[in-house]
Amino acid sequence: RSILKTPLKQAATSQSVLTEIQPDQPLTTPPKPKDPLPAEPWTPTSNLKMLISAASPEIRSREQRRELSHNTSEVLQAKHCLQEHLLGDEYEKSQPSRKEKSLGLLCHKFLARYPDYPSTAENNYICLDEVAEELNVERRRIYDVVNVLESLHMVSRLAKNRYAWHGRHHLFKTLEALKKAGEKNKYTQQIQLIKKREYEHEFDLNSERNEEMARCFGSNKHSEISFVELPGMEFRAASVNSRKDKSLRVMSQKFVMLFLVSTPQIVSLEVAAKILIGEEQLEDLDKSKFKTKIRRLYDIANVLSSLELIKKVHVTEERGRKPAFKWTGPEVLPNIQDTKLEATCTTCPPPSSESTPSKEQCSKNLFPSRGKNFTRHPSLIKLVKTIENDRRKVQSAPTSPVKISGGIDQNLSAFPSKMAQGPAIAKYQLAGQSKKEMKMQLSGSALECNVSLPEAVPKVEPPLSAAPSQLPALPQPLGVCPPCHSAVSPVILPHPPAGVPYAIYLHPSPAHTVTTYSPSFMLQPLPCANVTGIQSMNSKVLNKIPTEEGDNQMAPDDPSKSLTADEKPPIKSETSSQRCLKRSQALQDNNLIKRCRSDEESLDTALTFFPSGYLIPLTQYTHGNEAAFPNKEKAGICSLQHPSYSPPIAGVIPVTASELKAVNIPTFHLTPLNIMLSPTSVAAAPVLSNPCLSSSSTRAAQKPSSSVLNFTLQHVGLIPAGVQVSANPFLQHMPLSSQPEHGNCSSENMNVQEEKVRKYAFANNILQKPKPRIHAGFFSFPLNDNVFLSSLQPSVPKEPQEPQTVTENFFRTPGGPNTVSSLSATSDGTDRTSPGTLYIPQRKLEVSED
DNA sequence: TGATCCCGCCAACGT
DNA sequence: ACGTTGGCGGGATCA
């Protein structure tokens, strides 16, 4: 058996395969430099896959062989001709292009040989020799592929030369495990550190972060991960495989972990490489080592890309384009929530059998597309228009789907996940359509309230140095962090006017929400200016905020500036609280909507205003009071419920992101406030609206009597409108019923209004089912679409224009699941869950796809 | 150019 | 010893 590969054969094979599968693919053309090879020759990958899969393995290989031999002889002759008549270089050119030999392609071919979900009955053994031969590649290359697949437990080694194919059966579980491992390994923090370091380096800021770095990474050394295995999936041939596994396998897993733990699920090669190296040798980050790492990462990335787990993108920042990859695989939620969610979702099969798409599938079923094509067009104006249209639709025909461009998706969404391959094709096709629009700007991760990093608020410095974690076992990203990401940190504020205390539920950042620190994503407390602006929500504020936003956006260009902002002392809590109150008052007599509408500029605001939380009156709904809260802002949803209380619905004050920015930090200093968690406290219905579109809401606000209900309902209706979602659909996990006190809220406890809201919501697919539980958790929204773009990535089989309801969005915010769980307001006001940290995007991060 | 990453040498390992 | 694995990095290609 020889590995000797005849270039000839290779050419024949790759071409025959391509020809056979994709007759119209340019790939079949001889590799001439001029030939316009499609940027993504494998875009129709799924096509290939499906077609190949359609045939049984036997037929497949038979045909392959036939093709092979057939073409071989043909090409053989051609080769001779070429050799004899062409000049050396000309002959060279006739050779298969590099692309045709790429690892990615190889991987595709490899994957095409086996079903995603093989039945146990099938013969799923893989003989490397055979594969290598059939695919006409040297064995060495097969190893590259197999190693990565192995890291995902898609294959497992049985013995020498022999592997077992598992397909994606274990994929999801593996990812969960990896995520856990990644959190344990504090990758989130490492990423932040690295980015931060970069940043400081870049601007020559004294960077004696080394110690910090060392500590961070150092603490890992002990808990260093080798290879993450799944129970029952251990290396059977472990003994055979004892080679130091710092290998591709492990590297691959770590790479994946990085995606799973970082909030914008985008990881640049550079960072990844540094982290992977860092773990081994902190210091000598010599160039060559780095390069090598990068090379390996490319190898891995190619395979992962073939698996459609990641996708290549480019992150553009000041320093230029950096290659990076974006996670496009299934969203992996923290286990607890996950489990609960699954338990709740009866319409979907457990992920174990449907690993990849199950959740997405689930959400699709639960939330039939409404036909809204969420674009992420850069034009804000367009955006708003879209939103308005959407809203109209929703209001007029809440349940009737209006297909704009997602027809295929809709159909597909009804397909069982088994059909994943089918949709995949559509996905690609549609993806192509919207490709141009895929250019997105990530102006940071928007507002993120990281409850787990309180110390980080005032200082740019991550808390890492302050408290090197000794708790490797903690699932939390930071050992330092209190296990608070699972709880919302309510802050209750007295509401002077009505004498009603309000709780501000901020969106705590779960493990994976930790913002990556970097020049792109600056961790920084809100500038005072924001707070000021908030103190009165009037037109002035509106006008001002955009400006501030602008400032923030400028920050990227001016590091020193952002730093300065960082240095700004936190606002006095007292002041802020007061302002909060004022604000709520101000809301009463404001009709910002008009301004919003009339003011083109406010469009910007629209985006940045995405709510992150609500001010929730803690008392029962009171007439006249709630009315005061015009919903001119799009609010984030905040359903809140104390475990032991049955919360009737209450008024909700939408808090815009920008407001939160201002309020947030100070809020956490409001410890002196009285916490009055009334048993009847709160239940906020999901609300999300676009300030510019809430005209009707405004009207409602004018009618005190029905204010709350109207407010809620309207916001509910608005939700879809207010959400700017990337063209990519994403997973919509519904942490809704993750509450332990699940049953606490008996329908009897629901007052009429809530019931109404619930029904309405349900009618709009906002609720999973008529379950009396809209208050089961807290949901917040990212500030703008960027967040969605960056962190709410589609799960594997992603349909480009997948319509989605807003519900899906807020059920799946970055903070999502974690946020919902154990929502327990501490009774003493000094929430243990700790204050939140705002991660405010400081720089523009542009992610473009190729 | 810089980004990608193919290719295959050769050492560690297993049998 | 010999075959299997797979780390590694030179240098070719691509964009």
TrEMBL record:
User: Entry's Pfam families?
Assistant: WHD_E2F_TDP (PF02319)
Stretches with biased composition (Basic and acidic residues): 558-571
One GO MF term on file is:
DNA-binding transcription factor activity, RNA polymerase II-specific
May I have one GO cellular component term?
RNA polymerase II transcription regulator complex
Extract the ranges annotated as region (Disordered).
Answer: 1-45, 347-369, 547-582, 793-850
| Extent of Polar residues compositional bias | 573-582, 802-836
UniProt GO BP = negative regulation of DNA-templated transcription; positive regulation of macromolecule metabolic process; positive regulation of nucleobase-containing compound metabolic process; sprouting angiogenesis
Q: What is this protein called?
A: Transcription factor E2F8
- Reading the lineage from the top rank, the first entry is Eukaryota
E2F/DP family winged-helix DNA-binding domain location, by residue?
98-167, 243-329
| Family note | Belongs to the E2F/DP family.
Record localization: Nucleus
Organism per entry:
Bucorvus abyssinicus (Northern ground-hornbill)
Residues crossing the lipid bilayer are none
InterPro entries, from UniProt? E2F, E2F_WHTH_DNA-bd_dom, WH-like_DNA-bd_sf, WH_DNA-bd_sf
Q: Has the keyword Cell cycle been applied to this entry?
A: yes
Keywords on this record?
A: Activator, Cell cycle, DNA-binding, Nucleus, Repressor, Transcription, Transcription regulation
